[in-house]
Specification:
Elements: E1 10-13, E2 19-24, E3 31-36, H1 43-49, E4 50-52, E5 57-65, E6 71-78, E7 81-86, H2 87-93, E8 94-98
Antiparallel strand pairs: 1-5, 1-8, 2-3, 2-4, 5-6, 6-7
Length: about 100
Amino acid sequence: MKPNYREGDLVTFIRFGSLTLCQLLTSSPPAARECPIKELAVPSYYDHIYKNLEGKMGLVVYVARNKLDQPLGYRVLIEGHEMFCKSKVAQKYFKLTENQGDESR
């Protein structure tokens, strides 16, 4: 079953195989992209373009939905920057940490 995240959910970014979620530093506004893990990437190219988000937390602030009420993507607040992630990316790289109504951790 595919996870559906709601506004107010706290998520942690995880690794999926040999890929991870990174912030693209050369774009404005900030964008989240899939990129190879640092161990597999070319160091000089990787450090200037991508900021690794693996292990960091983000807050889901908006859920874009289609007419069938299925999630298309999520706006996530990460380190003071709001980024949009498609739902396919969220399925792979998001791990639910905490719900808005459940603070048990």
